[in-house]
């Protein structure tokens, strides 16, 4: 007896439902934000496990605060772009070009090119401290590291910069009136000239959380978290801002412009929101952390620029990969991580959606085989 006429259609429908979509089987593109991989903790997973974690999340940019050899070795052939750091305690030594060259030969060259190291930060937030000797040494140290890279033939591959606290600004509102602290002008002006000369980015650590924590009654939480809000209009430019981070970035652009430069990229080397804090740390909650970082990642995915630079997508390194239990200071300092040390997410911002249990090459093979087999199956069903 012939099968019912609906049988081929039913079987075809079943096949379509069982066949994974080709879209879901394609490798997910790398996410366009970086992550700060801090290690002030005694309970973190091994670097090899971290490498696998970041690969599963498709994160391809990592910033270190040192040049940890175990980390750099673990990321060999991982196609992850690294910023590595020279600590403040080692800045004075870097003023000697021979010492800078020896440092690079020991900490950078052995891992190239299999580990993609593209930038060295010399010191961290030096201008927000009180050590004027360290401030004076910073630019000569950066120049010396640059000279060492040139001597080793690495200047086209590895750049040099330093990271600054947002506290180096004297004024950040309105964004068009952004300016650096007057007592730092003598340090920052020649530093900006150096950045322009070698085409290296100006890195800033910007945290809307700090502004909200300092004045919760005066700062709109929605504005700080990228949530819907009336926004703020700069009276000098009539540009409208719907979030604090973009206003902070543009205030840095204005401060740099006030020193005669429009040829330097501003990048956010740190930003984030703590998921927990002390009782006096307003806004440090799991919900707010998830909202801030989740909304930030949406903006990054949209390739948005700031109102002053709408065609230049923001370049951001989120702080941080893990909660770090040995950090000093208020509780918030130990709770910026996207992940707990056991690699489980502190909260869900969509980073766990892309990994799958088998490789993209196997997926492609499966799809190709099924697609190739489909015409024969259709013909067989119709004949029946």
UniProtKB/TrEMBL annotation:
Catalytic activity of the protein: Hydrolysis of (1->3)-beta-D-glucosidic linkages in (1->3)-beta-D-glucans
Protein name: glucan endo-1,3-beta-D-glucosidase
Family stated for the protein in its record: Belongs to the glycosyl hydrolase 17 family.
Keyword Iron applies: no
Keyword list, A-Z: Glycosidase, Hydrolase, Signal
Extent of the signal sequence: 1-24
Hydrolase is among the record's keywords: yes
EC nos: 3.2.1.39
GO molecular function list: glucan endo-1,3-beta-D-glucosidase activity
GO-annotated biological processes: carbohydrate metabolic process
Any coiled-coil regions, as ranges: none
Stored InterPro entries: GH, Glyco_hydro_17, Glyco_hydro_17_plant
Pfam families reported in the protein's UniProt record: Glyco_hydro_17
